[in-house]
Design goal:
Elements: E1 17-26, E2 33-35, H1 40-54, E3 60-62, E4 73-78, E5 87-91, E6 95-100, H2 103-116, E7 133-141, E8 147-153, H3 161-173, E9 178-182, E10 184-185, E11 188-189, H4 198-201, E12 205-206, E13 224-225, H5 230-241, E14 246-253, H6 258-263, H7 292-308, E15 313-317, H8 324-328, H9 330-339, H10 344-361, E16 365-369, E17 382-385, H11 390-397, E18 402-404, H12 407-410, H13 432-436, H14 447-450, E19 453-460, H15 468-475, H16 478-487, H17 494-511, H18 537-547
Parallel strand pairs: 2-3, 2-4, 4-6, 8-9, 8-19, 9-14, 14-15, 15-16, 16-17, 17-18, 18-19
Antiparallel strand pairs: 1-7, 5-6, 5-7, 10-11, 12-13
Length: 552
């Protein structure tokens, strides 16, 4: 006989409201799944997950009113009174009932339900001989922020499409709803553009890659490259949408341009175009020139990107744009005079403004890193605030939307400890507890200003992440902490979170995630590292404060 009170698993992210009752719901070969048509995708995802882990083939029916529901089983119901992404999950010994106003809420309810079953429910092959039961529970939940995401840099080291899909699964598992794909940079161009095939034929490949993070580090002598076909992109976008995740593309400009300039030299400044993408890390002087032909080129590229990504936002970079080529080039100086611009900061703002205007004409919202504040923020642009909090403060107070991703808190490629055993220990130490403290809304904002903070995301730059194993190690379990910081409203206590995370690690184990254990790197995860670089947060704060006056 089974106890009326079975052990109740903890949830991550923590739910707003949860009440446990007596009994348990057991999955058997007789269990059915039924759904309202609007919630078909989360119902399908649940059916797939349960079949993969349990081997049970549960029949799925679709109807508007539940009339074919036999009274036992799992049911997804539409409840238009619930807020977007909110859900109500009721588990009784007889039934499981999911209520949501749209598919995303159904997805997050489904992920919550999975956490109530034994961790092996997250396996990708059947775990034989197990009893699959979830405790009777009532959960009502909704996210604090609408933007809960992660940025994945697929340029520095290319991430094959299958691994991007796997990462999407892990985002959805933690109720993160946004994948920001960093697709172009100095070191490579990773998206096929039909009108400009050389962007991937030449820009998609580099002769070698820098080893380590310090200046003067050697190259590895190994060619590196890859890119996504447009069919790859369509598959990634569709796969993500079927799991409640939006994919936002990033095309870098006007800096971080060497891969594009190597492919099409007329886009560069002067006559010294590089022959290949850059093989080093850091900030490269290569920038796009300010000619109308270059603006036309980039808008043509973005038109193809827009056709592939239905997301509301398109990121156009704007960060780390050196001005030395513009400053030293006679033609650029002449161009600035033609445009009535007084300095190179204004030229960057003009450049961003032209591209942003085109995006708005195509029904998209432009998004850029906080350097787009320099020279005056273009109308309607939203800001990724990465250099501390000052960019978020300046943009929100000027009425622009903000996504917080501060370097000193949620750059997950940074080392988690100062231990000499950390692999490639770049950046400032960013512990699990530091990440858990993440709050996208600066305390200095009033209520009206705070509404401009859409949410936040973690960033994973891949100079030193060259495999799925490396991505797992950097992202997890810190991304679990980001997920709770962005989902759960109210007070957070790391001492309360930590034991729930330790319990959650069994789910990551079942899903095959090769995470960094909170106690430190395991022996197989240790390899020689290099000295890290200091954070740029402190050095940027004064600069950003100085430009606040320019963004009325």
């Amino acid at each position: 006989m089974h106890s009326a009170h079975m052990p109740s698993p903890t949830l991550l992210p923590r739910a707003q409201s949860r009440n446990s009752t007596e009994g348990e719901f057991e999955l058997t070969s007789q269990t059915t799944v039924s759904t309202h048509p609007a919630l078909l995708q989360p119902a399908l995802r649940l059916q797939e997950r349960l079949r993969a882990a349990t081997g049970l083939v549960l029949p799925l029916t679709v109807d508007d009113d539940g009339s074919r529901d036999q009274g036992r089983g799992i049911r997804f119901d539409l409840d238009t009174e619930l807020e977007p992404e909110a859900f109500d999950l009721q588990v009784t010994p007889a039934t499981v009932r999911v209520s949501a106003s749209e598919a995303r809420g159904g997805h997050w309810a489904m992920q919550t339900l999975l956490q109530l079953f034994p961790p092996a429910i997250h396996r990708h092959s059947p775990a034989r001989g197990m009893r699959w039961a979830a405790p009777a529970t009532h959960v009502r939940d909704a996210p604090r922020f609408g933007w809960r995401g992660a940025m994945l840099d697929v340029v520095r080291h290319f991430t094959p499409a299958r691994e991007v899909r796997r990462f999407i699964d892990l985002l959805a598992m933690h109720r993160l709803n946004t994948l920001h794909l960093h697709l172009t940079d100095d070191q490579g161009w990773r998206i096929a553009i039909d009108r400009y095939p050389l962007l991937t034929e030449i820009g998609g490949w580099r002769p070698e890659s820098q080893v380590g993070a310090t200046h003067g580090s050697p190259g590895d002598g190994r060619p590196h490259g890859g890119f996504y076909t447009q069919d790859d992109i369509r598959e990634i976008v569709s796969y993500a949408a079927d799991r409640g995740v939006t994919v936002i593309p990033e095309i870098e400009l006007p800096g971080h341009a060497q891969a594009a300039v190597a492919a099409y030299p007329h886009l560069g400044v002067g006559q010294n175009a590089p022959a290949a993408p850059w093989t080093k890390w850091g900030i490269n002087p290569a920038v796009f020139n300010a000619e109308e032909t270059t603006i036309d080129f980039l808008t043509n590229v973005l038109d193809e990107v827009i056709d592939l990504f239905p997301s509301e936002y398109v990121c156009i970079g704007g960060d780390e744009c050196p001005k030395v080529q513009w400053r030293e080039d006679p033609r650029t100086q002449e161009r600035m005079r033609e445009l009535g611009l007084h300095d190179e900061e204004q030229l960057q703002s003009w450049f961003i403004g032209r591209i942003a205007e085109h995006l708005r004409s195509r029904g998209k919202k432009p998004l850029g890193w906080d350097e787009i504040l320099e020279g005056g923020l273009v109308p309607g642009a939203s800001v990724l605030s990465w250099r501390g909090r000052v960019g978020a403060l300046a943009a929100a107070r000027a009425g622009h939307d903000v996504v917080a991703c501060p370097e000193d808190t949620v750059y997950l490629d940074y080392r988690e400890s100062a231990l000499p055993t950390e692999p490639i220990p770049v950046g400032t130490v960013t512990t699990l507890e530091t990440v858990y403290s993440f709050d996208p809304v600066p305390a200095e904002l009033d209520a009206a200003e705070a509404r401009h903070v859409l949410g936040g995301q973690a960033n994973l730059w891949t100079e030193h992440i060259d495999s799925a194993r490396g991505l797992d190690y950097r992202a997890f379990p810190r991304l679990c902490a980001v997920a709770e910081a962005l989902w759960t409203d109210g007070e957070r206590d790391f001492d309360e979170f930590e034991p729930r995370l330790i319990e959650h690690l069994a789910r990551l184990d079942a899903a095959g995630v090769e995470y960094r254990h909170p106690d430190g790197p395991r022996p197989w995860q240790q390899r020689p590292g290099v000295e890290g670089r200091p954070s740029s947060v402190e050095e940027s704060a004064a600069h950003l404060a100085a430009i606040t006056a320019n963004i009325g």
